[in-house]
Amino acid sequence: VLAIAAFVPLIFGPQWWVKAQMRRHGVEREDFPGTGGELAEHLLEQAGLSGVKVERTDAGDHYDPIDRVVRLSPDVHDGRSVTAVAVAAHEVGHAIQHRDGDRLFLARIRMAQAAQKLEIAAAVLFATAPLVLAFVRSPAIAILQVGMALVLLGSRLAIHVVTLPMEFDASFGKALPVLSGGGYLHQNDVPAARSVLRAAALTYVASALVTLLDLTRIIRILR
What we know:
Largest sheet: 3 strands, mixed
Structural class: mainly alpha
Radius of gyration: 21 Å
Number of helices: 8
Order of helices and strands: HHEEEHHHHHH
Number of strands: 3
Helix content: over 70%
Strand content: under 5%
Distance between the termini: 13 Å
């Protein structure tokens, strides 16, 4: 218990930092000519991606490669802030990765689709382990079954490992050069945009750490 408690700040610290950066630079700016949603539409058009739509959502900022839609939270879609502009550009960066056939981006799509099936398989293995132990009366098989389930659940960690360089590319290889070189931000706002884009990229680090904590809890319960 003490070991887990000691790791809690390390696990939730990045999550707190990401949210703090988003809030810090989320102040509305009257001098901004458009909203995050309007900028996303403009950048998509500039990138030759007029077929990609921009939608307002409550499910978090993301690019959907299946429906080919950039979905933005209300604060980003309707906001006129450094956070809104930077996050919108970041998500458009993913659409550009999709257009360019980025290797890591395509790998993540395949892994995410596989992960859903693997998590279902893991749930089945966990649920049936007691039955195997009761009817087959083989602790070794039951332990092997639980071990396989944990490995399957750990597949989401692998997705986060692939995702991190892809996220940094969307932030610093795609979004930041456009924002700083295209005249969409004052030069004084570029450092703030860099902080927001770093936070956007590290969102998946925070998610990976939470996944690791969940796996640790499951292992502890099984013991």
